[in-house]
Amino acid sequence: MSTASLLTSLLQYKAWANQELFAELQRLDPITQQSELHAALRILNHIYVVERVFVANLQSINHSYSATNTPETPTLEALHQAVQDTDRWYLDYVAGLSAEQLAERLSFNFVDGDAGGMSREEMLAHIVTHGGYHRGAVGRIMAQLQLAPPRDIYTRFLHQDQPQRREAS
Question: Angle at which helices 34-59 and 120-144 pack, to 10 degrees?
Fold first, then answer.
């Protein structure tokens, strides 16, 4: 498996996991579970902002973020749409990269002003792992509300996406 195909699979998994989590978050009552929903939205908005920062970094362009979250908290619906758009951007982006472009190291500045340098493949791997870490925190909020969070695991995605993997070889 090439780096590009692995990254594509991981980004597809990320988009799938986001879909599952946003669907489950619709079960939260915006009145009686307002503080938990707000906390979940803040975490998910943080993921989104970081992903948008890296969209800019991958293109070597400036972004407008001065922090890794925004002062305002978007609605669940607005954030879900923005996340879907960003997930599509990443999948389209990686589909157009060569192995040489994936390995190319880019320089950028973090939102706190510190300098950074990563290859495109490292940035894309960061997006996948960063989102997984924080989706787990949202899953913990759901579990504390006695709601089963989605099973956000790569193997589940692979077997659901490609059921033939369950067949004996």
Answer: 180
Domain ranges of the chain: 3-163
Among candidate residues 78, 108, 94, 114, the one with its CA nearest the CA of residue 12: 94
Q: Which residues contact 70 (CB under 8 A, 6 or more apart)?
A: 45, 49
Helix (H) / strand (E) containing 106 = strand 105-109
Beta-sheet pairing, 115-119 with 105-109: antiparallel
Q: H or E segment at 115?
A: strand 115-119
Topology of domain 3-163, CATH = Four Helix Bundle (Hemerythrin (Met), subunit A) (1.20.120)
Full-model pTM: 0.93
93/55 Cα distance (integer angstroms)? 9
Measured CA to CA in angstroms, residue 87 lies from 33, 82, 124 at distances of: 27, 9, 12
Q: How many CB atoms lie within 10 A of CB 43?
A: 19
Residue recorded with tokens 């002062």: 71
Per-residue pLDDT of 110-122, as tens digits, reads 999 999 999 999 9
Please say whether the beta carbons of 153 and 135 come within 8 A.
no
